[in-house]
Design a protein that fits this description.
This protein has 676 residues and is α+β, with helices and mostly antiparallel strands. The chain folds into four domains: 156 residues, Multidrug efflux transporter AcrB transmembrane fold (Up-down Bundle); 189 residues, Multidrug efflux transporter AcrB transmembrane fold; 102 residues, 2-Layer Sandwich (Alpha-Beta Plaits); 90 residues, Multidrug efflux transporter AcrB TolC docking domain, DN and DC subdomains, CATH 3.30.2090.10. The chain has 25 helices and 18 strands. Strands 2, 3, 4, 5 and 6 form a five-stranded antiparallel β-sheet that branches. Strands 7, 8, 15, 16 and 17 form a five-stranded antiparallel β-sheet that branches. Helix 5 runs antiparallel to helix 23, helix 9 crosses helix 24 and helix 9 packs across helix 25. The relative contact order is 0.13.
Length: 676
Amino acid sequence: MDDPPPSHGNSRRGVLAIPTSLIAAALVLHYRGGTINTMVLAGLIIALGEVVDDAIIDVENIMRRLRLNRAAGNPQSAFQVVLNASLEVRSAVVYGSIIVALVLLPVFLLEGLSGSFFRPLAFSYVLAILASLFVALTLTPALSLLLLPQATHHQTDAPLVRWLKLRYEKILPRLIQQPKRVIASLVGSIVVALIAFQFLGEEFLPHFKEYDFLMHWVEKPGTSLQAMERITERASQELRAIPGVRNFGSHIGRAEVADEVVGPNFTELWISLDPQVDYEPTVAKIQQVVDGYPGLYRDLLTYLRERIKEVLTGASATLVVRIYGENLDVLREQAEEVRAAIAGIEGVADLKVQPQILVPQVEVHIRPEAAARFGLTPGEVRRAATVLVKGMKVGEFYEEQKVFDVVVWGAPQVRDNVEALRDLMITTPTGGMVPLRDVADIIIAPTPNLITREAASRYTEVTCNVRDRDLGSVARDIEKNVSSVHFERGYHPEFLGEYAAQQASKNRILMLSLLAVIGIFLILYTDFSSLRLALLVLLSLPFALVGGILSVILTGGVLSLGSLVGFVTVLGIAARNTIMLISHYRHLEKEESQTFSMELILRGAQERLAPILMTALAAALALLPIVLGGNRPGHEIEHPMAVVIVGGLISSTVLNLLVMPVLYWKFGATGQKMRS
């Protein structure tokens, strides 16, 4: 007896299990002490499509089996029918869920800032999938047993589903009859998308649209405190005159025990904006004021952006060329050559060489022969001079629960006068006294104001920010131009900053994705027990990414780390739907003894039409507010990711509904084909 057409009229009963899965995931997150932030919510929203699919798969199959059981005169109890129907699709659901978790493995293993941003999303996404799997194994069959046996015996498809099936029945046979064209279109689309992918711009993290801004203004070392106060007061008046600027603050220099030790030539300004203002025009006015102070280094960053740059390189700049070497004069010359090489690159902003000038410093050059005549060693002379000039801690005392250091130090009139330093008396081992001038030369020598080291090697830096162009293009141009600069032997550049971090994260994702692909192949082979089917699914999955690449092109053509995570998510959704479709075809062949034919292909595709569309539609509708909301404050990471996922959902739906049936017809036969 032929199976009656499946019904989707009671699919709404599967919706009862959907909030249960999401609530369970949220409760687990709360129990583990996690906070429900925007990335966690984004993961739950993305998982909504798979959660819907889990419920639909079970309900659809149970409904179909109950109708067949009624048509046969109810030979089995409703409990047995529901149990058998649920077990029929269980392996496909389990394997599909494992594939989704495996695909997100690269996101789990991201390191540094990128891992901190995206790991909560991956965790909540996988947790929701696992919670949905648990609900599908327990609650969905129980609800189906309670509600579905009493449903109306004569079910019909919803009007929209009937309309879609009629159109689908006309389109799919035509495609099946032209497999070569479909395969050529598949391969061509993947090749074009991969070529286009190489020309997309790149960003590490988006420009966060915060309302609190931080500005660093750095004059030449030695600039007086009064001069910096005049500049700061004038900037304060101009910035507070901009509509929407709520407040202004600043500090000049830092104390020696502060987190940063800087002189009075270094000023930090900060302002806050009213959240109701038009963001982009207001920021442009602020930037115009900042640019109106030439002759000093200045930048305009949000607090989060500034923290990211500090964590990545220790410098508040997007791109850093760090030059290593020994001689400071050569380092400065090489840095100036690098600055000149990248000065003309489009998109480079706030370009500067690490400020390093010569400042006066008192130096004591010991004359060993003269010191030896008085029985003094160079170390004794140096220690005595250091105590008198710089001071030395000799003890502590406590008062009112406070600790005070006891320091021996020379008198101010001695420390500030070179002639007085020369007349300092040093005690000899015999108890006599000798002037410092008799055993050492005291001179004032020009000395660099700052010497930085890393791994015992001196270095200087050339830094810049990026404006009006994508990060990847600017960084690649900088690397190209710097490679043409001749470096002396023992000197070499290193490229740091956001682009280096983005490339490291990208390479890590790609490397781990290869491992995930191997795992997916093994799972497919385990499920299908067919090398041909496993390869068929694996080689066709890149088509699901075509829509994501196209959506990136249509929305600016710039890839961020969020976009890459979106591609990974799309791959998991497409793989899951594909394994469900192939498993359904094999179930019809093995369990329902339907021969491999055109009828099998059409029937299996039609029965998966509603679940596939429901999965894609649920996920797309959940992400649509983020996509339509644009790149507004608070959605800087989720927006590019949502754009990629929505575009990928379209191409993955086309893959599963139009391409995979054709490929299965062409390559999926396990025995002799019986063409209808």
